Amino acid sequence: MFIKNFFEVLSKIRRSGKERLVCPRCRSSKVYPSSWMNGWLTPPQYVCEKCGYKGPILMKLEEE
Q: How many CB atoms lie within 10 A of CB 34?
């Protein structure tokens, strides 16, 4: 039963539409890594050009 559910989840992941990363504050897609060394020793930090948000958390929106 577990294996069947596991394969169902995998197939749904493969079939999912395109995802885009957006700012959690304003939902703008103009979000960029804050540094070229981003994520090397510390968690990645992102900056939103629209609202100025800076942090490690982004939202993923699925496009159908």
A: 14
Q: pTM of the prediction?
A: 0.63
Q: 9-54, pLDDT tens digit by residue?
A: 666 665 556 788 999 999 999 999 988 777 678 888 999 999 999 9
Both structure tokens of 63: 């496009």
Least confident of 3-7, 39-43, 57-61: 3-7
What are the boundaries of each domain within the chain?
Answer: 18-63
The answer to whether 32 and 46 are in contact (CB under 8 A) is: yes
Both tokens of residue 6? 């596991």
Rounded CA-CA distance 4/28 in Å is 38
For residue 33, which phi and psi values (nearest 5 degrees)? -60, 145
